[in-house]
Write a structure and sequence with these properties.
Shape: elongated
CATH topology of the largest domain: Rossmann fold
CATH architecture of the largest domain: 3-Layer(aba) Sandwich
Largest sheet: 6 strands, parallel
Distance between the termini: 45 Å
Structural class: alpha/beta
Number of helices: 18
Number of strands: 15
Radius of gyration: 24 Å
CATH superfamily of the largest domain: Phosphoglycerate kinase, N-terminal domain
CATH class of the largest domain: Alpha Beta
Strand order of the largest sheet: 3-4-2-1-5-6
Oligomer: single chain
Length: about 450
């Protein structure tokens, strides 16, 4: 696997404007969860490294799936968290960079900025051309900066303008988090130590068929749990009661069952409904009744799978093995997670990944023992399925074909616009959208500290 281009001491960044693509796509209603805040926390090092080099950092991120410019999904609502974690003022530039007027206003803010300043642009998905990888939009972004850094592994499987388009027009590099993610996931593709055990869970088999097929080529055992195991059970003429199942995945499950590396649960925790109040019972796979709903793997399965994990040299865990958001059905995922953590860092290499897996991994109380927790979600699975090739990563391997106007025509510093910078930043902080965001006391104290500065 080729090495990603990374920033080094020979790249002079003082006073240079750097577009930094991050993944700050987190729920913004209510109090953010630990796994959501980790996305911002993990990006702090890259931002601080760029600041130390004297760069003007211009952050790009998507937020939700807007169909138009929706106030609820404006990145202005990320300001308090950004300032709290970065421990510095962050200026929001919400102008439409796809218009001449809007781009000119953003340029004015950039010209007024000093080395080490941090700016946050509007939600990249507010632009129709983002998901189409529109060249004009990519050029409009590139026109603002001298360099581009991608530190959003979770978005690298998207051939979008802010991920795969901008690198064509600016000198570009991979951020420290992206580099770490690629190195961790790449281990599975570079002759990993055997035995290799893959634990794959979640709700839909259809979304994970490519990665299951890829893993079957390198893994010694592929353990399948969660609702994605249900088509395999039906394919073997077992009953699953009222449990959820993707009918369209049944034919694929029948084909995959021919591979003896696939292992399915031998028993389950079932109940007549799935909630926090029920008391599930453990039954063998051949004793599931018509009224039962499968909520978790059973105790015998937990023992068998833990024994395999305890002998593994390489472990991949992606997806919860039950309806882990409900306490009565979280035990299987937590136990297997702890078995992976106990085996990792030394005895074996343990990689955990996937959006639904991260909160469970954190709940184990042993998250520090995993070799790597990937924030990639779908990107991690596609990375494995496509042998390390993702649009956002491939774009970084290719040289920039054109120079942006920002890098070829250095703008003169505006002498009086620094005052505009400060006034605009203060005004943005007073927006009602920011006031509505319920953040932790830690965030409030740090924001206050930043304002004092």
């Amino acid at each position: 696997m080729k090495e990603l281009p990374v920033l080094n001491s020979r790249v002079a960044l003082r006073g240079k404007k750097v577009l930094l693509r991050l993944d700050w796509n987190i729920p913004i209603k209510g109090t953010p969860k630990e796994e959501d805040l980790a996305k911002i926390e993990n990006s702090v090092k890259t931002v601080h490294d760029l600041q130390k080099k004297g760069a003007v950092v211009v952050i790009l991120t998507h937020l939700g799936r807007p169909v138009k410019r929706e106030k609820e999904l404006s990145t202005v609502r990320l300001l308090p968290l950004a300032e709290a974690y970065l421990d510095c003022p962050v200026m929001f530039c919400g102008e439409d960079i796809f218009t001449e007027e809007g781009r000119s206003m953003v340029k004015d803010s950039l010209q007024a900025s000093r080395p080490g300043d941090v700016l946050l642009l509007e939600n990249v998905r507010f632009y129709a051309g983002e998901e189409k990888n529109d060249k004009k939009l990519s050029q409009a972004y590139a026109d603002l900066a001298d360099y581009y850094v991608n530190d959003a592994f979770a978005a690298c499987h998207r051939a979008h303008s802010s991920v795969a388009g901008i690198p064509a027009y600016l000198p570009h590099f991979a951020g420290s988090q992206l580099t770490a993610e690629v190195a961790a996931a790449g281990y599975l593709l570079r002759r990993p130590k055997k035995p290799l055990v893959a634990i794959i869970g979640g709700a839909k088999l259809s979304t994970k068929i490519p990665v299951v097929k890829s893993l079957l080529k390198v893994a010694d055992h592929v353990l399948i749990g969660g609702a994605m195991a249900h088509p395999f059970l039906v394919a073997q003429n077992f009953k699953i009661g009222k449990s959820l199942m993707e009918k369209q995945s049944l034919s694929q499950a029948k084909l995959l069952l021919k591979n003896k590396k696939i292992m399915l649960p031998v028993d389950f925790l079932v109940a007549d409904k799935i909630n926090d109040q029920v008391k599930p019972k453990c039954v063998p796979v051949n004793q599931i009744k018509a009224k039962d709903m499968i909520g978790d793997i059973g105790t015998q399965t937990m023992r068998q799978w833990s024994a395999l994990i305890n002998k593994a040299q390489t472990i991949l865990w992606n997806g919860p093995l039950g309806v882990a958001e409900y306490e009565p059905f979280a035990f299987g995922s937590l136990l297997i997670g702890r078995a992976v953590a106990a085996r990792s860092k030394g005895k074996a290499y343990g990689l955990v990944g996937g959006g639904d897996t991260v909160p469970v991994a954190l709940q184990t109380g042993m998250s520090q023992w995993f070799d790597h927790i990937s924030m990639g979600g779908g990107a991690l699975l596609e990375f494995i399925a496509n042998n390390g090739k993702l649009p956002g990563i491939e774009a970084l391997y290719r040289p920039a074909s054109q120079s942006s106007s920002a890098s070829s025509n250095k703008p003169k510093r505006m002498k009086i616009s620094r005052k505009v910078f400060k006034l605009k930043n203060q005004a943005v902080k007073k927006l009602k959208a920011v006031k509505k965001l319920n953040i932790k006391s830690k965030s409030k104290s740090k924001t206050a500290k930043s304002k004092k500065k």
